[in-house]
Amino acid sequence: MNNKSLVLFMCVFCLIISGCVGSSLTNADTPLETARRLAGSDKYLLHTQKSQCLDYGQNETRPPTGPQENIIVAPTRIFDNLYFIGGDRVGSWLITTSDGYLMIDAMFGDSPEKVLIPGMEELGLDPAKLKYILITHAGPDHAGGARYFQENYGTRIVMSQQDWDGVLNPQPGSWVLRAAATPKEQRPLPQREWIGPPNMDLVGIDGQTLTLGDTTVTMVFAPRRATGGGLSYIVPVKDGDQTHVWGTYGNTGAPQSASDKALHRRSIQHFITYMEEAKVDAVMSSHPFADNSVERMRELRARIPGEPHPFVIGQQNAKSYLNIMDQCTAHKLAFNL
Question: Which of 103, 129, 139, 307 shows a CA-CA span of 20 to 30 A to 260?
Answer without folding.
Answer: 103
